[in-house]
Amino acid sequence: MAAHSVIAETRSRVPPAVTNALRAGAEVPDPRLRALSELTRAVLNKRGRPDRSDVQAFLAAGFTEKQILDVVLAIAVKTISNYTNHLFETPVDAAFKAREWKASKGGPKEAVPGQRG
């Protein structure tokens, strides 16, 4: 999460308000990125079976059917990466430490810098 937050903000110029909303599990302020976030969550939460209304909302935001496949691919790649990092307890690189995040039992939450989970 730390690396993705930093890279999104610096290389992709995603506003911190968007990354902060994603990290907190809150509504994303940008409508197009909200549609992307909501489809991604629907695919994850519904185990690859989003409702037609989930897909329609994504397409209505200007995305294409090909980009639905991009979402599935991104989920697959990140699942492999995340599981590997969790299994081997990979430490967060110093460059991303300021945006470190720890999961809570209640869902996503923003980590307080310097505080462990």
Secondary structure blueprint with pairings:
Blueprint: H1 2-10, H2 16-24, H3 31-45, H4 52-60, H5 65-87
Helix pairs in contact: 3-4, 3-5
Explain this structure to me?
There is one protein chain. With 117 residues, this protein is an all-alpha fold. The protein is built from five helices and no strands. The chain has helices spanning 2-10, 16-24, 31-45, 52-60, 65-87. α3 crosses α5 (65-87).
Name the helix and strand elements from N-terminus to C-terminus, one letter apiece: HHHHH
Q: Which stretches of 5+ consecutive residues score pLDDT under 50?
A: 109-117
Separation, N- and C-terminal Cα atoms: 14 Å
- Give the fraction of residues assigned to helices: 55-70%
The helix-and-strand class reads mainly alpha
Number of helices: 5
Q: Quick one: overall form? A: globular
**Tally of strands:** 0
Oligomer: single chain
Summarize the main sheet: none
Give the overall average pLDDT. Answer: 89
Strand proportion: under 5%
Radius of gyration: 15 Å
Summarize the structure.
It is built from 5 helices and no strands. The chain is mainly α.
Key traits:
56% helix; disordered C terminus; mainly alpha; 117 residues; 5 helices; globular
